Amino acid sequence: MRNYIHVISLLVVNAKVQDHISAFVLLNLVVNMLRVLAKLHICKLTRESHGYHHCCCSLLCCFRTVSSLTDPVERIPFEKLETIDYHSIKFHQLRQILQECTSAGDLLSGMSVHTHLVKLNINGSIMIWNKLLSSYLKFGDIHYAHQLFDTMPQRDVVTFNTIISASVRDDYDAFELLHLFSKMKKEDVKPNHITFSALIGACNGLIALRLREVFHAHTVHCGLSSNAFVGSSLVDGYAKQMRLEDAIRAFGEIIELDLVSWNILIDGCVRNNCKEHAVRMFLQMLKGNVRFDGFTLTSIIKTCSKPGDLKHGMQLHGCAIKLDLAHETPIHNSLITMYSKCEKGMESPLKIFGSISEPNIISWTAMISGFVQNEQSEEAHGFYKEMLRSGVRENDFSLSSILPVYGNLAKLDQGKQIHARVIKSWFGLDLSVNNALIDMYSKCGSLEDAHLVFMKMEKHDVVSCTTMIMSYGQHGKGKEALEILSEMESEGLVPDGVTFLGCLYACSHGGLVEEGVRVFKTMTEVHKLNPKQEHFACVVDMLGRAGRLNEAESFIDEMGIESDVLVWEALLGACRLHGEMELGEKSAQKIMELRPEGHGPYILLANIYAERGSWEDKEVLREKLVSHGLKKQLGCSWVPLERMPC
Hints:
The chain has 35 helices and no strands. It has helices at 2-14, 20-46, 49-69, 91-104, 107-120, 126-138, 142-151, 157-169, 174-186, 193-201, 209-221, 228-240, 244-253, 259-271, 275-287, 294-301, 310-322, 329-342, 347-354, 361-373, 377-389, 396-408, 412-424, 431-443, 447-456, 462-474, 478-490, 497-510, 513-526, 533-545, 549-559, 565-578, 581-594, 600-611, 615-627. The longest helix is centred in the first third of the chain and has 27 residues, at 20-46. The model is unreliable at 2-25, 44-50 and 66-89 (pLDDT under 50).
């Protein structure tokens, strides 16, 4: 053993390695050789012949590698050397060593194999080069992998698939992937289904969306669009682009449909809010004798989102129980969401949550969201505290779900505590969390904090701007709301119907009538958005608040919305504000005809009579209210009280 150590010392002392890679590898080899010597000594003492022989072979391999590194003729491992007969090399031994290095996570030993291959100038065996490329990627060093890819003596479809898939996982730019694909075509390497599946799946950025169509055309040209892998990637990609028709068309091209293909299409239909088609696809899948799994059931349960879907949702719940899928946590989570939306109260979701053996963050978030949707903010707050006590940490979805609770309860101090947790957890960069913070601060009356959150956001989306516009509108700051609209358009964001509704609301409460009329025209004429009854009602309310009641009535006639109860309610409210009896009577009569079960028009008109001193008319209206079996709802107000000592 002393002789071995002496030889190693001589090798290290006499080594003339000039490049940093070989030097690094040499150092690592020496360490490995010393480890092997220690094992060799133990095997000799215990007389384990098999282990002794294995250690000797490993040591010999290390000596050969050191010898190749210290060759005085060629020292740089990436230079081309004279070709040798690769048949004389035992490739299976090199592959075995490489596999052991990869399994042990030993990057430097893997690099030593790389150096050995380059020194021997082995150009004929593409398999071992692909193995080396895969090893670098498993080591997590994509930089060295790309270096190896660029210097490989030859490349095949496996090589390109390996580097493309790794680049996709590492979030490489889509155009860099396109460059790899172009290189593949130039080298006459024919892509296969794995190539296109990876490339199509990487086209998720706004700039890269058109690339999906380019790759789709290539799949048709190569006859691969009917492949299940390629077709499923196309279906998923088009569905994420909200292009359901194209997704269905790509689905129809697949020859052999499997469960994954059906699951992707059904989930895409749900994502595109085409629930009826999702159900049809589910039934068609069952007719084709394809047995669904938990993922299928989780997606199809999402189609049940309103009270009328409760019966359908309960049937799906029964299917889950019958097929022994009800124990899966994702199905439990989807059932919690379904019952929260379809059933009044939270009794059923609580039972389902209690049956989950190990609820995850999605389970807790679904329960919190359910409480918020059912206007049980106090219960949502208590559930959130229980989640934290159980050791479950929040994520961006749970934080976005709990923040509206404190806006509804107007608990600014507790909302600020959640904001502090957001900052500590690094979720302050998430768009949805910031949008929820803006809304919470606005509802709690802290417009300055809402504006501060908005200004500190790295980027905005349509929801961010709309929420801020709504916040300004609630506080009567119409000019500031219109400034956000201008900034939004300058950032390239396209306002939607909700954005314009917020602007109209802000103009109405800020007294900006002319600006509000321009906003309405911009929405209809420039952005070609069809106004809904809420938009019409906002315009009527805006004109009415400004005392332009005749213009408001003319607007109703011009737009042909006489059958819209909301616009007449807005006009009646304006008449109440300005004491306009005649138009108020007309508006109240319209509301009574369109919504006879409502008590609102009776109360507002009675108040108009009272303010004008028409007490007899008010009494008649009151008697009419009672005779129709209607009753005014009692109002209430509340303030939080500090705990007082008993």
